Structures are given as C-alpha cells and as structure tokens.
Amino acid sequence: MSAAEGPLVVGVDTSTQSTKALVVDAATGEVVASGQAPHTVSSGAGRESDPRQWWDALREALHQCGDAAHEAAAVSVGGQQHGLVTLDAQGDPVRPALLWNDVRSAPQARRLVEELGGPKAWAERTGSVPGPSFTVTKWAWLAEHEPEAVRATAAVRLPHDYLTERLTGLGTTDRGDASGTGWWASGTEAYDEEVLRHVGLDPALLPRVVRPGEVVGTVRDSGDLPFSKGTLVAPGTGDNAAAALGLGLRPGTAVLSLGTSGTVYAVSTRRPTDPTGTVAGFADARGDWLPLACTLNCTLAVDRVATLLGIDREAVEPGTSVTLLPYLDGERTPDLPHASGLLHGLRHDTTPGQLLQAAYDGAVHSLLGALDLVLDADADRSAPLLLIGGGSRGTAWQQTVRRLSGRPVQVPEAKELVALGAAAQAAGVLTGEDAAAVARRWDTARGPVLEAVERDEAALARIAGVLSDAAPLLERQSDQR
User: Is the CB of residue 33 less than 8 Å from the CB of residue 68?
Assistant: First the structure.
C-alpha cells in the first residue's frame, strides 16, 4: 500500500498531443505516480484525431502509474475543449473527432452569427460569439459536408465527455466544457433549444450537464483499467477550467497559458458577454465564470520558426525591428481564420535570432491584446501574471511576456496543472471541499516572481501597425492550405 497521508486520486489531462495521468495524495497534493502516452493529429486542411486513441493513451498512462492507480479512490478527466466527437448507436466513433484548432468551419461560424441575431445577440445568449473553434460551427460544417456522418450519429460528446463516458458508461459533461460548445446558454445554464433547432441537433444526443462537485458515476468493471471497481468519477471539465482549478484561482488574477494554443483568462463572478468575440464567456468548473481569449499559434508556431531558421528555440537576439506574425494555422485572436504567417521589415543585417525574437513578440502580442478584456474593471493590473503551460519554463517566453506586458511574472513550480486541477476535482468529490480550495491547500501556485520591467511600447506599436496595415492580406482566403 501507499505511504500517502490521505486517499489517492487520479487527475487526467487529455490534450491535443497526448494524455497524461497523475496519481496525487489528496491530503498533501504530492504526485506519487505519473504516466503519459501520445496521440496523433492529422495534418492538412483539417485537424482530427480518432477518439479511440485517447482511450488507448489513457489506459497506457494509467498502467505506467502502477499500483498507485489501483489504490485511487476517485478520478477526473480534464480535456481539450471544443472538439466534436460523434458516436454511433454502439458508442463507437462515426468519424475522427474535429479538434479545436480545425478552422474549416469558419464560413459556417460567420453564417450562424448572422442568422441568429448577430454578435451581440450571441454574446448575450451563450456568453461568446462562436468562431470556427466552437463545437456548434463544427457540427454545422459536418452537416453540410458529411450528412451521412450526421445521420449515423447517436450521441455528440466533447473529448473529456468521451473518456468520462468510457469510464462510467454514462453520458455526462460539466458547465465549464459545455460553455465552449455554442449551444449552451450561459444566462440560463441550459442547452439552447433555438440554437440546436437551427443547426439540426437533437438535444437527446447531448450529455447531461452535471453539477459542480457531483459524483457522476463509478468506474465500470473493466479488465483493461488498473482502477478498483467502484472508484468514484468526478465531472471533469475543459482544460482551461481544469488549469484554473489546479491553480486554485481567485477572481482578478490573470493567467497566461503557453501551449499548443495560447490563452489568457481570469476567474470572474460576473457573467461575461463580449460582442466583439475577442473574449469567450466560458463558465468555470465551480459556479463562477472564466472569461478567456485564445490564440491558435503559440509554442508550436514559434518552435516551427526556430526549426526553419535552424537555431535553438532559446537563441533569440534583441534589437529587432522586424515584425513576424506567426499565424501558421490561421488565427482566432485576432479573428483571422484564413491568415498565414507574415514577415515585415526584413533587412540585410537582420539575424536569425532577431527573426526568432520577432516570432515570440508576435505570439505574445496577440495574447496581451486581450488581457485587459478578460479582467474585471476593479482587478489589480500591477499584480503578477501567472505564467503556465509548456512555454512557461522557457527563458525567451518569460522575458518576452515581461517586456511586452510591463508586469511581474510568476511561474508556478507545479507542473501539469490541467491534470492537477482534475485531481483536485476528484479530491473534492471525496471530501466535499471546493476543488479550488483543495488546490490552494496544496499550494500549487507557489513559484518564483520575476520583477516587472519597462514595457516595450515601441514594439507593441510597431506590431499593431503592421497588423492593421496588413489586415486585407491576412483576411484573404487562400487555397494553399
């Protein structure tokens, strides 16, 4: 048996690239075992994954955890948001899942916004103006391009829902992940029947939205999982809401997450409604709100630039007057789904290191542009930004955020915050505690604070100017994808 002080719980992060599992001591927050297994994502015009890969990866990650997973009393799954999972009557995928960064539904997104009252009406109705990342636009795309797949669909799920259902046999979701679909109304906290009718989606195909802290079921008697029979299953949630739980986030503290996508968000007690569409008015996993802005191009885009230049990702050089907008996958913030990368200001004496720094600057500029919009008016804008995600450990990312924000930056020592947040949620269903309070008890946000430096106003103005001048080019649809 484990020498843990309290019961063990499992937190899962099923992300774009892999599934990770942590076995955590619910009393102390100590990670006693971990595992990870990869996924594959299609390339080309779409971004798709077979959901069965996620299950296989979860099984592998759990088996890597050894006996500790068998001792766990509860489990919860945090997962990539927005993905459209279509299942047939036997519970098997009809087709590969359309992932959050598949932007083929941009025409359907524009049409849906126009047909149902415009941006302001959508923001008031669902909290967000749906772009091509949102699940409702992917369903509309599927109905238009693959009607036979729609006819074969007996259940519609999000990625975390799919794994939770494989664990329990029950179709459930939570308010945090449901709020990213475009068919969940944030005002009433229920599925929006008008939106569902408009896109031809029967609400009977959707999972039940469970309450925060509810036990959604127990792990089925399954011979291919290391869990004990009867292990409790918590609601799970979307990855950003899970990371907010993992940090024990309180209202007013801003988070910059640097991963495959870049996000900036904060917990709020006020329901967000941004008619510009920059801020998504997501719910959190507790009962509050999680206004969030997301970019499609973050660490992978900058790493790609470094690879093209043949230099290390940390080999940046100062003094650049070059602007590089790294919109390699189109972009969500700003809303430029058809954009590609853009380079301006190249000179004979420009160095590879300066080009790489320009890529960092372009990625961070997009995130900081939305920072004030996600914070409540009374939030302390001199407080440290919490920097998380895979990029947060990189010196070049840290220094770029400091220089372009002019704010101190805190880098939590805890890793795998999505999985930790899911673990805190699992601990909460055992103890009856609020999951964020569990994470604060674990002191997950502890980490060094990097002092503020003077904000680089010249770089911010230069990037904004190029973005404005190049808007017609960036908005032009290209067939070269």
Answer: yes
> Which of these is catalytic: 102, 174, 192, 239?
239
Q: How far apart are CA 76 and CA 246, in angstroms?
A: 12
Q: How many C-beta neighbours within 10 Å does residue 248 have?
A: 23
Binding region for substrate = 81-82
Neighbours of 312 (CB within 10 A): 12
DSSP track, 296-331? S-SHHHHHHHHHHHTS-TT---S----EEE--BTBB
**Residue the block writes with tokens 């067939």:** 479
Which pLDDT tens digit goes with each residue over 351-387?
999 999 999 999 999 999 888 888 888 888 888 999 9
Residue 200 in contact with residue 144, Cβ under 8 Å? no
Helix (H, G, I), strand (E, B) or coil at 357: helix
Among candidates 192, 242, 265, 295, which has minimal Cα distance to 420? 242
| Binding site per annotation, positions | 81-82
Reported as a single tens digit per residue, the pLDDT across 252-310 is 899 999 988 899 999 999 999 999 888 999 999 999 999 999 888 999 999 999 999 99
| Helix, strand or coil, per DSSP, at residue 114 | helix
> Has 378 been annotated as catalytic?
no
Which pLDDT score, from 0 to 100, does residue 478 have?
Answer: 61
- The residues, ordered by sequence, that sit 6+ positions from 275 with a Cβ below 8 Å of its Cβ are 119, 120, 122, 123, 129
Euclidean distance between CA atoms 182 and 201, whole angstroms:
12
Give the pair of three-digit tokens for residue 248. 């024990």
Residue 458 has pLDDT above 70, yes or no: yes
